[in-house]
Input
Amino acid sequence: MTLELRNVAKDYTVRGKVTRALDDVDLEVLRGEFVCVVGASGSGKSTLLSLVAGLSRPTEGEIVLDGVPVTGPGPDRGLVFQAGALYPWRSVEKNVAFGLELLSLDPVERAERVNWYLAETGLDGVRKSLPKQLSGGQKQRVAIARALACEPEVLLLDEPFGALDVQTKEDMQVLIRQVWADTGTTVLMVTHDVEEAVFLGGRVVVLASDPGRIAADVEVALPAERDLAVKREPRFLALRARIEDLVREQHRGHVSRVAAVE
Output
């Protein structure tokens, strides 16, 4: 499986003015990879993910998954937002089962999948609870389990831990690395947190701004098996600093261009 963005550009029109949010983006994500996308605000991170999810269409270029053009949403892509968007009237297990109810699955297989992903994400003990009874981290676990239960080719994560406290965020980072290792699902994630991107990703793609475009594609030369202790190692700190510098340089360039126009 390969996810490819080929010369992708995206324009928005607001009050008659056309603004290019992304321009000439070429990106390839191979089966089983965990790729994180970072960049300053306005670099088009969420726009890029929206295009891959099929929630909007490119103005130019194409997005191809396994040789098939992406023209809209589909079960081959699972999407998790910062706000988990759970159904408040459905229990945890029924939220996880929601996507499966839309597929032609035997009830026994459906129940087995729900049970497996509840266990995998540490939710078995709260399976009968409603979302209002859950913590922020638990809600995101439900959103991740629901997206993965349909066994998509690609899991798309749009800053899913951005609203969580530091401890819960780190717990979720460890969880998503473990789930990725256990399932082999391809992951494309956007985040503003460079430390998070380096800890989670096998590659970190840095977007420039105005318009959004790929400024760097950095391989994360860290062990495949990682725990939080790796964040204190010199090689981790050096890589984080390198990528933070790249993001900062692109942001400064954006500010300079805006100032020159004004």
